[in-house]
TrEMBL record, chain A:
It comes from Bradyrhizobium guangzhouense. The chain crosses the membrane at residues 7-28, 40-57, 64-86, 98-122, 143-165, 197-219, 231-253, 259-283. Pfam families: BPD_transp_2. Its main location: membrane. The lineage of its organism: Bacteria, Pseudomonadati, Pseudomonadota, Alphaproteobacteria, Hyphomicrobiales. This is Branched-chain amino acid ABC transporter permease.
From TrEMBL, chain B:
The keyword Nucleus does not apply. Gene3D superfamilies: 3.40.50.2300. This is Branched-chain amino acid ABC transporter substrate-binding protein. Residues 1-38 form the signal peptide. PROSITE patterns: TAT. It comes from the Bacteria. InterPro entries: BCAA_transport, Leu-bd, Leu_Ile_Val-bd, Peripla_BP_I, TAT_signal. CDD domains: PBP1_ABC_ligand_binding-like. Keywords: Amino-acid transport, Signal, Transport.
Length: 293, 427
């Protein structure tokens, strides 16, 4: 069944959904894309942030987005600590650091999952806010407010992070360490401290992304498993380290998924998105917006 | 070496103790005491404690544990043998259960087996259990024995004959004037089994299926699917979904709308029976007609039901699990009652004799009388179809009173009439 109305709906929802995917992938774009850290615990931190937002919303009535801002500094510190641990135990020990790093972050993800279960139990949790469960009418189209919130926040977050990385001293240092760690060291800077700071920023972003996650849909302690493939897919498709590219790649993924779900049958959606990833990697191995090394 | 000789007419202390010991051991009480010390009755199972099915698994296990504590407080079974549960976490994964059940049988040497909660983890152990000729009390799986044909399988779930679920829902929809059906199902075994029977029943009734989609697990956003479904203007919408998806689907329905043509919406949405989900969804649940297993309506109380929920409510809070526990917990308890009655009647743990007893008798439980048909499923369906009414946001206590989920099916448990169309029932 095909109609222009349905196609238009699918594109609009796809763009909004894509922005949400972009927001939850942004932190990974820094930690994996720029720093080359195999951060498979990224979605677990994301879910942890969602539970922190849930806690503040449920017990103190804090709006989920405000709660996301409140936990941002805590997640920054968490990121600093996690990177230091990873560096001391794995990265500085040698060439197979990446492989062992994956084991480290899988361990971290598992610990986070167990801690959430111990504290909150295994049931699904969600938050309440005036913009959840309602939709904006635009002619015949109805757009869920929660997706509009995700769209707005993702756009602002990407802009702020891009500005930070391109306009501030520390931001430029992070880009420099991503390109040539040794050159930075020769200039008297400590690349490990820069990387630690960057990892802190990547984790702090998860505070807001976690808020979006629980605004868009309820969470449970094992939800991170559903986002590992999706977030890595977005970051790799974008090209490692490209923040703007992350948002665009996420929108392409969201629109493709939405059109397939609406017009071609729901079972095809995951196959189409991963087929797109493979096709892009075949044509441009560096991703859509990555530079050739 | 000196020999200690007792004087005639007198009894030494040692002989007194020995005689008393022998007398007690020879008496029924003594035999029981010795047996109780020697061997508890071990019931083995895997149960999801982590992963997507953990919410249900934990509530189900608590129901079984309450039965174990009750039966042990009464002195145990077979004249004093205590019941012991041997439980492993299967992490909600089908790949874990075969190894766990091999260990339960060969290493732990349990006396009896209970199946894990849910269809997906149970399905892979069915051939092994059949091959070894073991009794298995099923735990809310759907149609896992239909192809295996194990004659020592007894499912505690109230599903009944395979097509009764779809039949009861479509009956309600057609009585409300429904002339076409949309089918939306999760792409996994349980939901696909439901969808298959719904398709078959609809075909038999010449009910056109205007939308039939299976969505993949981990679908995040359902707006697009609901919009496509709405465009087909169905009268009856039958949804077979798993917990995270049920919430997403209902949210999308609320935001996008489903159209005035829809008379009934729901049917097989797993998750809308769990306290936390019901509390989260609140008023979005209104109007949905969905399956359930136990509800606090007058018709649902049997001997022991109230006492069970008194105990469950206290322990669930401490264990941080579903505070209502309607869906699974009383059926976990009933699994224990089935076993208890069979063991008491047979007088041994002989699995063939226990299976024969379970197949040939009707059993009294806190969820009502249970009788099994040849395939090990309930002889008559007792699965409920109920409509959410007058639910408000963020209030879990409201679900403890009657009237919030009005039972529409089966007739002998009915507590009200359908409000239709769906949009009218939402307010």
């Amino acid at each position: 069944m095909f109609s222009l109305d349905l196609l238009l709906d699918a594109v609009v929802i796809g763009v909004l959904l894509g922005c949400f995917y972009g927001a939850v992938s942004l932190g990974l774009s820094v930690s994996f894309g720029l720093l080359d850290v195999p951060h498979v615990a990224h979605p677990a931190f994301l879910v942890l942030a969602s539970y922190a937002v849930y806690f503040l919303n449920e017990n103190y009535g804090v709006d989920p987005l405000v709660a996301g801002l409140v936990i941002t500094p805590i997640f920054f510190l968490l990121g600093l600590t996690a990177y230091r641990l990873y560096y001391e135990t794995f990265e500085k020990r040698g060439s197979d650091a990446a492989v062992r790093g994956i084991a480290f972050f899988f361990g971290v993800a598992f610990i986070i999952e167990v801690l959430i279960i111990l504290q909150f139990g295994v049931d699904q949790r969600s938050v309440s806010a005036s913009y959840i469960g309602k939709a904006w009418r635009l002619g015949d189209i109805r757009i869920p407010y929660r997706l509009l919130v995700a769209f707005a926040v993702a756009t602002v977050l990407t802009m702020l992070l891009t500005l930070y990385l391109s306009r501030t001293f520390m931001g430029r240092a992070i880009r420099a360490v991503a390109q040539d760690q040794e050159a930075l060291r020769l200039m008297g800077a400590n690349p490990i401290k820069v990387k630690q700071w960057a990892f802190g920023i990547a984790t702090a972003v998860l505070g807001i992304s976690g808020a979006l996650l629980i605004i868009v849909s309820p969470v449970d302690p094992t939800l991170d498993r559903a986002y590992i493939g999706r977030t890595f897919c977005v970051v790799v498709m974008a090209g490692l380290g490209s923040l703007g590219g992350t948002l665009v790649a996420a929108i392409i993924l969201g629109v493709a998924e939405s059109i397939v779900l609406t017009l071609f049958g729901a079972s095809w959606a995951p196959a189409i998105s991963f087929a797109m990833l493979l096709a892009i990697l075949a044509v441009r191995p560096q991703g859509l917006f990555g530079r050739r090394s | 070496m000196s020999k200690r000789v007792s004087k005639p007419g007198s009894i030494s202390r040692r002989r007194l103790l020995a005689s008393a010991g022998a007398a007690i051991a020879a008496s029924p009480l003594g035999a029981n005491l010795l047996q109780a010390q020697a061997a508890p009755i071990k019931i083995g199972m895997s149960m999801p404690q982590t992963g997507g099915l953990a919410g249900g698994g934990k509530a189900s296990l608590l129901g079984i544990e309450i039965w174990r504590d009750d039966v042990n407080a009464k002195g145990g079974l077979l004249g004093g043998r205590k019941v012991e549960l041997v439980v492993y976490d299967d992490k909600s994964s089908a790949s874990e259960t075969p190894a766990i059940y091999s260990k339960l049988i060969d290493i732990d040497k349990v006396d009896l087996l209970f199946a894990p909660y849910a269809t997906v983890p149970t399905a892979p152990i069915m051939p092994m259990v059949k091959q070894r000729g073991l009794l298995l009390i099923g735990n809310f799986s759907f149609q896992v024995n239909s192809k295996v044909g194990h004659d020592m399988w007894f499912n505690n779930a109230p599903w009944g004959p395979a097509d009764s679920w779809a039949t009861s829902y479509l009956d309600i929809g057609q009585k409300a004037g429904g002339k076409s059906m949309a089918l939306l199902s999760a792409d996994q075994e349980f939901a696909q089994n439901l969808a298959k029977t719904a398709r078959e029943v609809a075909t038999k009734r010449n009910l056109p299926i205007v939308f039939d989609q299976a969505y993949p697990p981990n679908t995040v956003e359902f707006s697009s699917i609901i919009r496509a479904l709405k465009a087909t203007k169905p009268d009856i919408v039958y949804v077979a979904s798993y917990p995270p998806d049920s919430t997403g689907i209902l949210r999308a329905v609320n935001e996008i709308g489903i159209g005035d043509s829809v008379k009934v919406f729901g049917g097989g949405m797993v998750g809308l029976q769990f306290g936390a989900v019901m509390e989260n969804m609140g008023s979005l649940l209104n109007g949905v007609v969905n399956y359930n297993t136990w509800l606090p309506e007058k018709s649902m109380y049997f001997e022991g039901t109230r006492e069970f929920f008194d105990k469950y409510t206290k322990r669930a809070v401490e264990a941080k699990i579903d505070p209502l526990g309607y869906y699974l917990a009383p059926f976990g308890y009933a699994s224990g009652q089935l076993t208890e009655q069979a063991i008491s009647a047979v007088g041994s743990l002989d699995q063939k004799a226990l299976a024969k007893y379970l197949r040939e008798n009707t059993h009294k439980t806190i969820v009502g009388p249970i009788a099994f048909s040849a395939d090990g499923e309930r002889k008559e369906t007792a699965v409920l179809q109920a409509q959410f009414r007058g639910v408000v946001d963020k209030n879990i206590e409201q679900f403890r009173s009657s009237g919030k989920q009005v039972i529409l099916f089966p007739d002998h448990l009915k507590s009200g009439e359908l409000v239709a169309p769906f949009e009218a029932a939402r307010t």
